Amino acid sequence: MGKRKKSIDFSVSKRLYYSIQEVADHFAVNVSLLRFWEKEFENINPKKTSGGTRQYTKEDIQQVEIVYHLVKERGLTLEGARQELKNNKDPENIRIEAIERLNIIKKELLHLEEEFERLHQLQKYSKTEIES
Length: 132
Hints:
Blueprint: H1 20-27, H2 31-40, E1 47-48, E2 54-55, H3 58-73, H4 78-87, H5 91-131
Antiparallel strand pairs: 1-2
C-alpha cells in the first residue's frame, strides 16, 4: 500500500468528473489497476466519452475507495472482496431483515411468557392441594 500522491479534497472541489490519472494519484495506484478493477468489479463503472476517456464521478471514486479498502488495506483477494460487496446490503434491506428477526423473537418471548404463566398456575394449584 503506497502513500497517496495527490489526495482529492471533495469538500472543496465542485468538479463533476475526474480523470483516471487523478483517481490513480489519489489512491497511489497505477492507472492499469483501476482499469483492471473496472473489469473485475461491477460497482466500479466510470462514464466513458465517445473517445473512450474515463470520467469518474465522486460516487465512482467512493466505489473505488471501497474496493481499495477491501483489497489493499484489509488484504482480501479479489474473490473475497467480491463476496464482501455481495454480502453488504443496502440499509433498507438490513432494516427489513432486522424487523423480521425482531418479530420472530417477540413471538418466542410471548410463547415463553404464556408457558411461564401456565407453569405458575400449575405450581400455585399444586401448593394449595399440598397445604390442605
